[in-house]
Amino acid sequence: MIGASVILVESPNAAVVSNAYGFYSVSAIPGKYTLVVSFSGYNSDSIAVNLTKDTSVSIALETGARQLQEAVVTAGRNNNVSKPLMGVQKLSINEIKDLPVIFGEKDILKTLQLLPGVQSAGDGNSGFFVRGGNTDQNLILLDEATVYNPSHLLGFFSTFNSDAIKDVTLYKGATPAEYGGRLSSVLDVKMNDGNNKEFHASGGIGLISSRLNIEGPIEKDKSSFIVSARRTYADVFLKLSKDSSTNQNSLYFYDINAKANIRIGARDHLYFSGYFGKDNLGFGNTFGIDYGNVTGTLRWNHIFNSRLFSNTSLIYSKYNYDIRINSGNNNIGITSYIKDLHFKEDMQYYANASNRMNFGIDVIGHTTSPGVITATESSSFNPLTLQNKHALESAAYFSHDISLFRRMNVNYGLRATNFAVMGPGSFYTYDKEGNAVDTSIYSSGKVVKNYFNLEPRFSASYKFNSGSSVKMAYTRTTQNLHLLSNSTSSNPTDVWIPSSNNVQPEVADQVSLGYYRNFHDNQYEFSSELYYRDMRNQIDYKNGAQLIANENVESQVVFGKGRAYGLELFFKKKYGKFNGWVSYTLSRTERQFDEINRGSWFPANQDRTHNLSIVGIYKAGKKWTLSADFTFYSGNAVTWPSGKYEVNGQIAFLYTERNTYRMPAYHRLDVGATLQGKKTKKFDSNWNFSIYNLYGRENPYSITFEQDPDNPAKTRALQYALFRWVPSVTYNFKF
Amino acid sequence: MVCLYSCKKTVTLDLNNAGPHIVIEGAVTDIAGPYTVKIHRSADFYAENSFPAISGAAVRISDNEGNTDSLMETSPGVYTTTTLQGKPGNTYTMSVRVQDTLYTAVSTMPFPVPFDSVTFRKAGAFGSKNIRAVSNYQDPPDIKNYYMFNEYINGLLETKDIFVFEDRLSDGRYISRDLRTEDDVMHEGDEVEIQMYCIAEPIFNYFNQLDQSGGRGGAFNTAASPANPVSNISNGALGYFSANTVRVIKTKVHIE
Predict the structure, then answer these.
(1) Contact (CB<8Å) A720/B219
(2) Structure pTM?
(3) Per the CB < 8 Å rule, is B7 touching A724?
(4) Which position among A305, A328, A641, A717 has the lowest Cβ density within 10 Å, counted as fewest Cβ atoms?
(5) Nearest to A724 by CA among B38, B7, B133
(6) How far is the alpha carbon of B227 from chain A, nearest alpha carbon, in Å?
(7) Strands annotated E in A52-184
(8) Counting one residue from A and one from B, how many pairs have CB atoms under 8 Å apart?
């Protein structure tokens, strides 16, 4: 259990929180104590302990009904006030299960976008922006493995099956020193371990997709497994069509999460977790694409003694896509992948009740295959293999968490990273026009260039009283993998490139300041955070950049700066028959490139001034739970014409500055209702109904410009929307 | 419910008016002259599609063989050559003087690539089956070639698409390439004329960028940042000056 609160009632200073693997360490002078463990959504447990020497106590909590009245144990409820970490959002699966989501699929990524500082990339787009950063600046981890494309079906679903997920933490401000590799945020998703006492099967059947989850002990109380799978079947309906141009189309995804864990003795715990997912889109045999992520993590936790804990992991991660085109004389195939092999060692040392140290190392070998094109004799295209790129990304970190004077908490740390660009390969340098002027050839294992960076991390909090605190943080982050995407919607075929002799690491410095206040015995939580982030070596594209199958893709980019700042306000009612939250972000994010917009600062595409989310969940009696969420955000910055002219008999549009216009605002209300179904000791079920976009607003997906077909002497602007009302029904069951 | 192409509507936007910009379009080809240079101004987005001609400009085209032609304004904004003959391999320089500003551009005419044939087939994305023309020709190996096509259906220029192609991924291949149109514009028996141009790299870049910024492709045209295509004419003029070869095939639409 992650983040469970453990206190010794008689010694209130001895209060700790369990780590990512459920390990906790609490120090006190010998004596008799009552150890109390609590975690939101579970019944607390208290155990009498007689401390004479180092003692190991393992506790399992039972799920309990949400407490409607305030209970005696309130430890853990004011974590948002007392912990120094700021810019952190934790989501438990309990919280998201009642929220209405498009197509009825519970989705942690969609729920995250209802929190302050996190913006959705829009309808039909995967990805999200954190504090004005780009979609590739979020490090997305599933049991420590990087997920390169966290979306299915062009963003309608995420790759995270909530049945398989235990816990989700988003770091957007004070990122701890143990994480690195992306500028804006870290999304740390931990998989469920599986019930090690009894077998359970659960799942859901919906209009568009279904899922099944099976978990249970391998050896009771010692080891367990969990397997979750799901598949969409929108295309099953296509197959029913008599029209051959429709019934040969395919549109589906499936994914499988699996995890097994074994406790060996009192000090060791072994885990294996894996994910496999695949999306398939196809139009008859003229066009097909499939893509997906594979991850695997082998982890060993070892408890040296009551103070020292170790986590050793070996991780594999791969994202690939495969395209087949069969059109006229053109039979071509295109494949591409990015693959990581990753070793990390993390240690946690609980020196005493006020001091905790984390340190460790991290080494990742990256290999990208930017594209292999295969073609038949009669094809209009040549076969082509773009050379693979290799890099070794290593880091060492140290951090120290100190509690001072019962009111202050300080966390300081340093992460030292080195990114080594490796051979084999040919490395080019380019002139201003993008022509290769120099080629250097390196053999396998030779280092082409090293980028060494120090990333200090610092955060501090000061508690005025048990209900309010102020926090501040400074972090520096760097990023050496960059996603090239010249379109407003992310494509599964966007190219990841590593830093190289031409492309330098992106670097960001962020400062943040926050004030936190809990009310009514921690029933209400309020937080406000102010942030400013400075970014260097940001990437944009030359006019007409050729990003596809281009060996010289590094000549197509330009480099510049960015800055983002904002205010995030969050108010949450955590307990009771009615609960929910309001989140509001006021922000700005801008970029500057010498080659673009005459070198002037311009708003980034994802700059949205206002972002408001309101979520409400109401438990109406024993059978029904009602929920609603409302989202509003200002439109993206866009570049629209300021005139038109004619060239080659066609109307062309005249553009002046970049991103001076705004799309219309986006707003949407979703409602949902869950009806408790048959429930016995062995079986539980419910029906979930939801309507996405209740008032059917045509939220603009894109606006394009063209000659008016009804009046060819004029031009018009055409707005496209993707979704109006989307109802859905899902039946959920659990054995 | 889920829109997929059906939720579209015209919207009126509050667009700025950038003021008139000068647009120059000039071409020298390897078929018999005369050749024309058109000079107009741009218009506001919500104005009529009539672009004011610029009269009284001094327009000259010269080649690297020492020939110079002073163009005559034969109709408002349209300037025509009298003696100039286009030859593949030659470099042409255009100069346009409007009031006090001089606009110049240089273009070298590539060597012609034979245009074998035009065939037709039914194809389309998302299950639609519209008739399209297919251009067939052999790309010369080891040279960078850039192509552009204009398609005339029953005498009218097809203006909804831009057809440009480069041999970056196809060097030395026999090219059979659709002149792709997603609309139902071509029918059995239509008179079709395809003009194939071998163009210089800056002209390919110009039309390629124009295609990307053009807002074509319906809902899914999501080029992140449209911009004016880079012109080979100096001093901020919009438009282009191209020296290109021309090969023409006239045929009737028929599906084998």
Answers:
(1) yes
(2) 0.90
(3) yes
(4) A305
(5) B7
(6) 6
(7) 88-92, 118-120, 128-130, 138-142, 145-146, 151-152, 157-158, 165-171
(8) 222
Residue B215 pLDDT exceeds 70: no
Residue-level pLDDT at A121: 86
Cβ of B2 under 8 Å from any chain A Cβ?
yes
Choice between B76 and A245, residue whose per-residue pLDDT is larger? B76
pLDDT beyond 80 at A401:
yes
Distance from CA of A329 to the nearest CA of B (A): 7
Options 1.10.287, 1.20.1180, 2.30.29, 2.60.40; CATH for B117-225+244-252 is: 2.60.40
Phi, psi dihedrals of residue B201, rounded to the nearest 5°: -55, -45
Domain with CATH 2.60.40 in chain B: 22-108, 117-225+244-252
A330–chain B nearest CA distance, Å: 8
Residue located via tokens 């309010």: A468
In this chain, the answer to whether the domains covering A5-76 and A190-734 adopt an identical fold is no
Measuring CA to CA, how many Å separate A649 from each of A426, A501, B25, B49, B50?
A: 44, 44, 10, 11, 12
Question: Which residues on A lie below 8 Å from B209 (Cβ)?
Answer: 543-544
Task: Flag if B8 and A720 touch (Cβ within 8 Å).
Answer: yes
Residues 59-118 of B with CB under 8 A from A: none
Helix-then-strand count for chain A, H and E: 5, 47
Q: Do B21 and A380 touch (CB under 8 A)?
A: no
Q: How far apart are CA A644 and CA A633, in angstroms?
A: 30
Nearest C-alpha in A relative to B230:
A543
Q: Which residues on chain A are in Cβ contact (under 8 Å) with B129?
A: 245
DSSP-derived 3-state class of residue A712: coil
Over residues A377-392, the pLDDT tens digits come to 889 999 999 999 999 9
The set of residues, in sequence order, having a beta carbon less than 8 Å from that of B209 and lying 6+ positions away, is A543, A544, B227, B229, B230
Give the model confidence (pLDDT) of A90-140 as tens digits: 877 777 777 766 666 788 888 889 999 999 888 777 789 999 999 999 999
Question: Which chain A residue lies closest to B125 (C-alpha atoms)?
Answer: A283
Q: Give whichever of A58-67, A271-280, A621-630, B122-131 has the largest mean pLDDT.
A: A271-280
Contact A485/B224, CB-based, under 8 Å?
A: yes
Decide if B3 and A720 are in contact by the 8 Å CB cutoff: yes
Query: What is the ipTM, given to two decimal places?
Result: 0.94
- Residue of B23, B169, B212 lying closest to A647 (CB–CB): B23
Task: Specify the pairing of strand A481-484 against strand A495-498.
Answer: antiparallel
B229·A549 Cβ contact <8 A? no
User: Confidence band (pLDDT; 50, 70, 90) for A486?
Assistant: confident
DSSP letter string, A663-674: PPPEEEEEEEEE
Contact A249, A223 (CB under 8 A): no
Q: What is the mean pLDDT of residues A470-494?
A: 88
Please tell me if residue B132 touches chain A, with a CB cutoff of 8 Å.
no
Domain at B22-108: CATH architecture: Sandwich (2.60)
Interface of B with A in 205-234 (CB under 8 A): 205, 207-210, 212-230
Q: How far is Cα of residue A596 from the mean position of the Cα atoms in its chain? A: 30
- The CATH number of A5-76 is 2.60.40
A190-734 is classed CATH 1.25.40.10? no
Q: Which of B109, B99, B132 is nearest to B29 (CA)?
A: B109
Mind telling me how many Å the CA of B240 is from chain A's nearest CA? 9
Task: Give B61 to chain A, closest Cα distance, Å.
Answer: 20
Q: Where are the domains of chain A?
A: 5-76, 190-734
**pLDDT of A555 strictly over 90:** yes
pLDDT tens for B42-95 read: 999 999 999 999 999 999 999 999 999 999 999 999 999 999 999 999 999 999
Report d(CA B161, CA B210) in Å as an integer.
Answer: 11
Chain A's closest residue to B127, CA to CA, is: A245
